[in-house]
Amino acid sequence: MNPTAEHRVERPRIGASAAVDLATQARELRPPLARTCLDSLWPALLGVAFAAVMHFGVQPAVGPFRTNVLMNIGINVILAVSLNIVNGFTGQFSIGHAGFMAVGGYTAAAITYYTSFHFWGDALVHGGVLSGLPANGWFTAGDALFVGACLAGGLFAAVAGYLVGLPSLRLRGDYLAIVTLGFGEIVRVLLQQSRPEIPFLAEDIQGMSLIDKATSLGGALGFSGVPFYTTLFWVWLFVAATLLVAFRLKRSSYGRAFLSIREDEIAAEAMGIPLTRFKVRAFVLAAFFAGIAGGLFAHEIGTSLNPRELGFLKSFDIIIMVVLGGMGSISGAALAACILTILPEALRDPPHVWPVALAAIALLLLLRRRSGLRAALVLSLVTAALEAVRALAVWQGVNLADYRMVLYALSLIVMMILRPQGLFGVREIWDYRPRRRRRPAASTE
Amino acid sequence: MTKLLQTLMDGFAVGSLYGLIALGYTMVYGILQFINFAHSDVFMVGAWVSFLVAVGLVGPTASSDPSIASALLVLLIAMLGCGTLGFTIERLAYRPLRRAPRLNVLITAIGVSLFIENLCQLKWLFGAMPQPMPRLLPDRPLFALAGVNVNLLDVIVIGTAAALMLLLNWIVFGTKLGRGMRAVSFNPQVAALMGVPVNRIISFTFIIGSCAAAAAGFLFACKYITLQQPAHETWIRLGLKAFVAAVVGGIGNIRGAMLGGLLIGLIEFFGAAYLWPNLRDVYVFTLLIAVLLLRPSGILGKPVAEKV
Q1: Continuous segment of H or E residues that includes residue B54
Q2: Residues 43-102 in A contacting B (C-alpha not used; CB under 8 Å)
Q3: Are A416 and B111 within 8 A, CB to CB?
């Protein structure tokens, strides 16, 4: 106790005693250590379990093509949720996210490819069960190399994010957007100018210097020959990690600082939040996860790690996911990433949508009763329109696959006009409770 | 010296095209404060409409003497078509979002851009193949300057662009319509209170910007003959560079857009000629970042500058 506190004895003591009461109360209420650990660990365990289910349960059931779609979904979820930290939480407008993905992807690819030659003399997959090779055991040196490379890609992307963010995050709004766009384009052009020939003989590679390796990235043709380590397990493990970080972040003091910057920069600054520093932190974090997504993308079978794939069109795709989901809504961004990855695939050969729509409408009406009416009505109208288009196409003998990008763009425009706040606005999916229970009014104040 | 002059000539020719496209970006930004990503597609449509009309007029391979009259007709039809397109885009896609957050408008612009590209790519419209533009404008060495042939085509391109820019400058600063545009960009609410028909002014802005883009598309097609397919990234990349020109010159400022266009063209060609030829885009975007960091409002843009 310091002397000033002694002094205050004379003053009314209501505040002080209340504080002491609260402190004892809090000490009594503190849960045991094991409970605390479990509370903070269960989402991580759930994530691992989910990834394992995807890998061992879902993958054999759906076949290779849909496995690939599921991997793409996971990668897009990571990208959308991470961009949401910058665009949704902090309210800064970045349109160069694919640039960070490219940095991470090429870093990870180069590390795996060239290091594989040093270890094994070839660039084949040397993974275990988790990489789809049951003969080698569970987790092998190859898996460790792959995960390490992805993390290194994330770190490189984070460093790039820091370098881009530090000077440019002083800019506001559209100017920041333009700078990030410029950054993404510069990354793309530089990657296109890297040396096009990639050596594939162990003796050639062992004689190369580090600089040579770092600049032999395949040029405009893309980096080919990267071993295919990415499996559903790894993708969804990283998805779980990203989601966990995003949710924890949103509830933390950092997250609240980000949100306050989004709401009002001047007020946030008045509350003592250093604007540029916090914006840079959001940017670096987002870049890190984009880099990891890039690493996963680089090692995925059926994708080509190519500068053109990672240009501004990819950045636009990610932004569209974030905006469609609702700026600041993590679950919304994830769901939008799922929808927008499946939609172009589904439009190749559009299936009947009415069974799914019917189930959704029934569910809406059951759970939300009257308040679900409007959503149900909209959903049924959309379904009717889709079925009409489908019927028309069949009748006229038009191949809808030719029109899929037109339909995609059109639905984007209509969506923006009819529901500008995205699917969920700033809220999460579970904020829409079946029946809103009235909370009892707060007992004090 | 020869190389210097040649580079200067090329830089000016391309730069004036960038300037023409940049006008559309800068006018829309000045009034509505959003990046109209669909503008590069209006430019693309301008080039392709020019191609279709030119083929209709003079046949796929016009080896005979090109006539100025047909070129003018092609230009006129392209401008008419793109003006209509610009008006339609604004009316159907952007006007419902007048009060929405700017990010939504931006996403809509991206959506419109994707829509136009993929629609034009369809078989019954422009198709998905690159096409050669028939020769419409005469091209012969006009005179030699220090060993460099000054081509008639380059002179026509630069001359047309300059004439259009002067025309636009007159529209914005010398007519009632232009005064309305400046008023709306200054403050739409007050302009509306003063009796300026805001929506009509915005429509006109889109039409004028689209006409400039159509002219740029026509000149581009005449100069570079090969037209890439509508969804090819060349178009968006040209549009992006034009947008960079608008930002470098000071977005919202039409004289800045012209200056920025020339600057971008020169930087691109001087960089390609004297440094590494493959890093053109890097020079442009580095210049952009440098300008934004040192002088965020652009070269001619001032916080209190009159904007359109």
Answers
A1: helix B39-58
A2: 87, 93
A3: yes
3-state class (DSSP) for residue B141: strand
User: Can you give the pLDDT of all 308 residues of chain B as single tens digits?
Assistant: 778 888 888 888 889 999 999 998 988 888 888 888 899 999 999 999 999 888 888 776 655 566 778 888 889 999 999 999 999 999 998 888 888 877 788 888 888 998 998 899 888 888 888 888 887 777 777 777 777 777 888 888 889 888 998 998 899 898 999 999 989 988 888 999 999 999 999 999 999 999 999 999 999 988 888 888 888 888 888 888 998 898 888 888 888 888 999 999 999 999 888 888 878 888 988 888 888 878 777 777 765 443 34
Between vectors from CA A241 to CA A237 and to CA A247, what angle results, nearest 5°?
140
Cβ density class A18-43: b for 16+ within 10 Å, e for less = eeeeeeeeeeeeeeeeeeeeeeeeee
Q: Mark yes or no for CB contact A323/B96 under 8 Å.
A: no
Q: At what angle do helices B233-249 and B2-32 cross, to 10 degrees?
A: 80
Residue A263 and residue A356: Cα distance in Å, rounded?
Answer: 37
**Minimum-distance CB partner of A405 among B114, B123, B281:** B114
**What does the DSSP assignment read for B189-249?**
HHHHHTT--HHHHHHHHHHHHHHHHHHHHHHHHHHH-EEPPTT-HHHHHHHHHHHHHHHHH
Nearest CB partner across the interface for A416, out of B97, B285, B296:
B97
For the whole model, what pTM was predicted? Answer: 0.81
Among residues A99, A80, A88, A237, the alpha carbon closest in space to that of A158 is found at: A99
Pairwise CA distance, residues A43 & A233, whole Å = 16
Positive or negative, the CA dihedral A185, A187, A188, A190 is positive
Nearest to A147 by CA among A162, A132, A130: A130
**Amino acid present at B197:** P
Alpha helices in A97-228 (DSSP H): 97-120, 141-168, 173-192, 202-206, 210-215
The Cα–Cα gap between A313 and A285 comes to 22
Report yes or no for ipTM above 0.95.
no
Beta-bridged to residue B131, according to DSSP, are: B227
* CB spacing of B292 vs A178 below 8 angstroms: yes
Find out whether B126 and B229 touch, Cβ atoms under 8 Å. yes
Are the CB atoms for A323 and B103 separated by under 8 Å? yes
Q: Kindly state the tokens that stand for B231.
A: 């969804």
In contact, A205 and A113? CB cutoff 8 Å: no
User: Residues 140 to 199 of A: which have CB under 8 A from any B CB?
Assistant: 167-168, 171, 173-175, 177-179, 181-183, 185-186, 189-190, 192-193
Q: Letter for the amino acid at B139?
A: D
Task: Give the C-alpha separation, B201 to B187, whole Å.
Answer: 13
Per the CB < 8 A criterion, the answer to whether A269 and A275 are in contact is yes
> The dihedral of CA B73, B78, B79, B80: what is its sign?
positive
Between the alpha carbon of residue B294 and those of residues A171, A174, A181, B35, B250, the distances in Å are: 11, 16, 18, 21, 13
Give the position of tokens 């665009």: A87
